[in-house]
Specification:
- It holds the Pfam family TMEM175.
- Keywords: Ion channel, Ion transport, Membrane, Potassium, Potassium channel, Potassium transport, Transmembrane, Transmembrane helix, Transport.
- This protein is an all-alpha fold and 195 residues long.
- The protein contains eight helices and two strands, in the order βααβαααααα.
- It has one domain.
- It has a two-stranded antiparallel ribbon with strand order 1-2.
Length: 195
């Protein structure tokens, strides 16, 4: 199949690569969970909560974030099935930010209440959201679709706000970051306002 313009790439191959990257990264989020050997004997409820609470909270946030960005990524590839070299490379940087998610997730899961670690994790989420938003802006260039753009821009503001919360009160930042899960609602509101 010949592309209508020289220099455009079909995004189908990138979609296959992204499925693999998201799948592996989302699976590796569980890698840093404590093993049963962490307990000297059979644990009681207090032991289980003490050992697993922080890592499971971090895993849950990261898994849902990765899932939302996987969904957004595939919607974007459907909207813009062809792209130039710059957009392809920007997509690769976006996928690199996803690959690094298990690293910052492991750090956050171990030291969730530390302000430096919370800021690092929040900054990583902000980088992922910003790259996704820029890719959406490029995909919609010249087209007015606020219902598609709003869900991409909303997490950028939420994660930026979460970084400020992480500086002041790291235990609150996780609740701020969870507001990013309202991104589909932001799209719905934008569609209602424009329609």
């Amino acid at each position: 199949m010949h592309l209508p313009q020289i220099g455009l790439f079909e995004m189908r191959r990138l979609e296959m690569l992204s499925n693999t990257i998201f799948g592996v990264a989302m699976t590796l989020l569980a890698y840093d969970l404590p093993k049963a050997s962490s307990f000297a004997g059979a644990p009681d409820w207090h032991d289980v909560v003490r050992v697993y609470a922080q890592p499971v909270i971090a895993l849950t946030i990261s898994f849902v974030v990765a899932g939302l960005f996987w969904f957004s990524h595939h919607r974007r590839l459907a909207v813009a099935p062809e792209a130039g070299r710059g957009v392809v490379f920007l997509n690769l940087f976006f996928l690199l930010s996803i690959i690094l998610l298990p690293v910052t997730n492991g750090l956050y899961g171990a030291y969730r209440l530390d302000d430096v670690v919370a800021v690092i994790y929040g900054f990583h989420l902000l980088v992922i959201a910003t790259l996704n938003a820029v890719l959406w802006v490029l995909a919609l260039r010249g087209r007015h679709h606020p219902q598609l753009l709003a869900p991409a821009l909303f997490p950028v503001f939420v994660f930026a706000l979460g970084i400020f919360a992480a500086f002041a009160a790291p235990q609150i930042a996780q609740f701020v970051w969870c507001l990013a899960f309202l991104a589909p609602f932001a799209g719905w509101l934008a569609a209602r306002r424009s329609g």
